[in-house]
TrEMBL record:
The keyword Nucleotidyltransferase applies. Keywords: DNA replication, DNA-directed DNA polymerase, Nucleotidyltransferase, Transferase. Residues 1-68 form the Polymerase/histidinol phosphatase N-terminal domain. It comes from Chryseobacterium ureilyticum. One of its GO terms (biological process) is DNA replication. It catalyses: DNA(n) + a 2'-deoxyribonucleoside 5'-triphosphate = DNA(n+1) + diphosphate. This is DNA polymerase III subunit alpha. Residues 989-1009 have a biased composition (Basic and acidic residues). One of its GO terms (molecular function) is DNA-directed DNA polymerase activity.
Amino acid sequence: MYLNCHSYHSLRYGTLSIDALVCHAAAMGIKELVLTDINTITGIYEFKKKCEGNGIKPIVGVEIRNGSKLLYIVIAKEFTGIGEVNRVLTSYNCDGIDVPERPDFENCFIIYPLNAHRPEQLNDNEYIGIQEEELNMLTRKEYRRLIPKMVILHPVTFSTKKEFNLHRILRAIDNNMLLSKLPESEICSKTAYLKSPQVILNAYRNYPQIIQKTTVILSECSFDFTFETPRNRKFYTGSKKDDLRLLTRLAFTGLERRYGKSHGQAKQRIEKELKVIDELNFSGYFLITWDIIRYSNSVGFMHVGRGSGANSIVAYCLGITDICPLELDLYFERFLNENRKSPPDFDIDWSWQDRDTILEYIFDRYGKDYVAFCGTNVEFKYRSIIREVGKVFGLPKEELDELSKYPERVFRDEVVQQVQKYGKLLEKFPNQRSMHSCGIIISEEPLTNFTALEMPPKGFPIVQWDMHVAEEIGFEKFDILSQRGLGTINDTVRLLEEKRGIKVNIKDTNISKDEEKCNEFLSQGRTIGCFYIESPAMRGLLRRLKCDNYKVLVAASSIIRPGVAQSGMMREYIFRHNNPDKFEYFHKVFEEQLGDTYGIMVYQEDVIKIALHYGGVSAADGDILRRAMSGKGRSLSALQKVKDDFFASCRQQGHPEELSTEIYRQIESFAGYSFCKAHSASYAVESYQSLYLKVYYPLEFMVSVINNMGGFYRTEVYVHEARMSGGKIMNPCVNRSEQQATIYGDEIYLGFMHLEKVESRLGQLIPEERRKNGQYKSMEDFIKRIPIGIETLQILIFIGAFRFCGIPKNELLLKARVLLGDFKPERRFETLFEEPVKEFKFPELKRNIFEDAFDEIEILSFPVSCTPFDLLQTKYRGTVMANELVQYHKKQVKMLAYLISRKHVPTKRGTMYFGTWVDVNGNYFDTAHFPDCLEKYPFQGGGCYLLLGVVEVDFHFPTITITKMAKMPFIPDPRYSHDEDKKYEIQQRMKEDVSMTHRKPYPQEHEIGLPRVKN
């Protein structure tokens, strides 16, 4: 009887999750249910599983609407019918083709609403749905003749009165209007809830023909679908045999390139892997990935293959990854084994500049009907939904700001209470569909057999379900990712060849794994700008470990992850690395399995090893743990079962309960926050490549970091780093600068991109015109050739972009105002240059030497012509410098420093911060600020501070615990010597990098339940 049920996947319309809808139906004894969400099939696969688990026959379809107008309801007779609907919706979503008012579906039933536009003559598969409240219309002759083609239409959208109000709120949000103004046409009927079958049959008791037709439709529909069938593209060449032949040839060609002709161990490993790959029918998956990499290489792009795929020597020999699994003892079974039914998962990074080109190749190569991004449901978040709900209740912005700032506060106002109540109910509701950040599906069959496609603003089609559903129904995604680190490496290599004629084969990992000078930089934490290893926390870890080789860097890449840190084992690893003779292993299993990492669980594999060898859990349970740790596992009940099995097995083996409890505490802390070893190794290779370029080509490297918009820090920090490497930093110049920063010898010219109020279009036009027609001879010549307004011209003057003229800024500004005034750029030829420009005599205007610096702070947010220290009123520069701090363990020091960044960290005593600073010599150091100190001496924004504190040297790394600090004032701004209000205004523009973490505080040594030495 239920031919028209909505879930909350009918976005901003339905109020029931799939689970709630099915459970409610099961409780009422309903045996057949039809899910027909509005213009989407998002929930059908979950619906099938839930129904079958509750003894209900699942039937699926789609309610087709054009805006708010209901056209008809489509119900699939069988699974192929869903494909027919998907193709119509895809044409509508992606190509703008209107949904037909009368569809031509072979394997579907079509139900028209009673009062909707419908054909005069209905086909065998076309019916009219009549709702209970419309039955009285059957007294009229024109409707009575239609009874033989009528079926029961009882829409389901909500289950309680509260949910009906929620539906109205969703409709008001969707229409962006006040709840009180929402028209009836935008909402469902008040009777659109799940009534019992008896109640519905009783309402239609006088029309047995309608009941019988409804029953026939339900009996003729089915939803047969096999979840376990792999649906990715099967073959690369066209057959399994040819795929294996090609894969084998490519693997052995790569073997010779990577290892030489006679490497027995590598040959044996390749043969073993190829056997498993063939048995599991994954040759095509490897070859498709290889094909994408081949194209990438052909156009000169750089990539990084990471994740568990780097465990495979076949992937290494095909060039998909650059990690040798023999070197790091990576086992293939972590990536692929006989028990695994789903395809392996390759994660591949490209530069953020190149990724779209790769995507276009994949869509063109494998066909737009077969390729799409995974979708993702963007959910309502409580803080933002408070604003949405508050708006439809008519609350003013000020109240909404207060409400969203303090969402848990109890308000007396009744309307506010309603907003909070319904806001809470909407948490976790899907709000809109969006594109998965990187997951792409390449299908064997046309994707519209399984889903309608949508076209988000980014321009690549998406399926209507997320990656979890994709995996459940047999699709494994290819992760095509992007990052700025690769862009930096690419641009540095290109810049070296363009500017200095130096060719660097950065893909040759031999040059960037064991360089003496690189290792020295690494151990000193001199890694600003380098991928993944530049944050204050990572630089501190590198110094604590005295990390001076690639293998320790691989471990450090994983130790820094929250999983290891939250378990307390990061601290323990540092101790053991520095004191290898001062600890004992927790248990002999830890020594046998984790000897390389001093008995500490560092990687996902380590956790699995301990679960298997200490806990005695099964391999299947080990995989559940692995998936939970990688964030892919969603079943809490399955994880709880593994925990119960772990403790039961530990007791059976006679392990002490206290030891088992502590070990499982560590395992739990890894969930969602750990790397597999191959992933860490991939990161370490890229980090080392960055470091190699930084060490040997520092200026070109820092220019590329700046142009790729940095990483952890703001542009100013990378400019400082370039200066520390011997670069001369120059302000933008119309005759030397490009849109991006550029370099001539040791002179680094900042780009027009750094001038916030200069449009990128103009920033590109200035150098283009210069290359085409020669350098600009004067400001007047520039104005003649470039369409520019007075405000933008003034910015260029203030930053010194016309300094080649040799004319003071003051005079240039006066000239600009005389020349342009109310001048419109598009009329420059009609007015300004119809006759020669008159020469004006300007009064001589003197400038303070620091005026340029204040101009720079105003435009760039940092000074270029001097350092922030030069602008201080005080001449004091501190008693101790950063490079001397290790000599002052447990001693008090007073320092003057410039704030680079601070990180907010919650503790049991309140908020604390970790600060990063530079001293007057430009060297970095770190501070810790505890809540009691911050209460008296808070941070006051960017700038220079006088610091007093006690030095703590922790494994070669000094940190100052601050007891007092004060922000130091700049000299008065000489540009406003007669304006008291503005004299100190610019100082407030100095920036700082502020980051936050919401993680729980890391456990202290006494809170970890494992002793370092056995009793």
